[in-house]
Amino acid sequence: MNAEQLTTERSALITLCLYAYDRARSAAVAERIEDGLANVGVTAIRPDGERFDPQVHEAGGVEPTDDAGLDGTIAETELAGFADRDSVLRVPVVTVYRLEGGVG
C-alpha cells in the first residue's frame, strides 16, 4: 500500500467518524469518537469565551447580553469544529454574545 492510498483511506475514515459524531445520540459515544480522533491527531475546536472571528468561526446564533465586555465574544459552541493537526476540517458553529439595549 502506498502513502497516497493510506492518506486517502485515513481521510475517508475521518470523514466517517465526523459523520457518526454529529449523529451520536449518546454523549458517551460522541466522547469516545472524539477521543479516538484525538489519538490520530484530529482535535475538536470549541472556542467558547474567545472573540468571534468570521474567518475561523461560523455564527449560528446570537445571545443577547447587557455586558459590553461580552459583546462579540463566543457564548457557546453549537457544533464543534475539527482540525487535523494544522488543517481545519470544519469550522465550529457558535453562538455569539451581542450587546442589547442602549445606554439608559
Notes on the protein architecture:
It is a single chain. The chain has helices at 3-23, 27-39, and strands at residues 42-45, 58-65, 74-79, 81-84, 87-90, 93-99. The strands form 2 sheets. The protein has a 3-stranded antiparallel sheet with strand order 1-4-5. By secondary structure, it is α+β, with helices and mostly antiparallel strands. The N and C termini lie far apart (69 Å). α1 (3-23) packs antiparallel against α2 (27-39).
List the helices and strands and how they pair.
Elements: H1 3-23, H2 27-39, E1 42-45, E2 58-65, E3 74-79, E4 81-84, E5 87-90, E6 93-99
Parallel strand pairs: 2-6
Antiparallel strand pairs: 1-4, 3-6, 4-5
List keywords for this structure.
104 residues, three-stranded antiparallel beta sheet, alpha+beta, single chain
Average of per-residue pLDDT values: 95
How many H/I helices?
Answer: 2
Tell me the major beta sheet.
3 strands, antiparallel
Distance between the termini: 69 Å
What does the overall shape look like? elongated
Query: What pattern of helices and strands is seen along the backbone?
Result: HHEEEEEE
Helical residue percent?
25-40%
Strand order of the largest sheet: 1-4-5
Number of strands: 6
Strand content: 25-35%
Gyration radius, in Å: 17 Å
Helix and strand content put the structural class at alpha+beta
The stretches of 5 or more residues where confidence is low (pLDDT under 50) are none
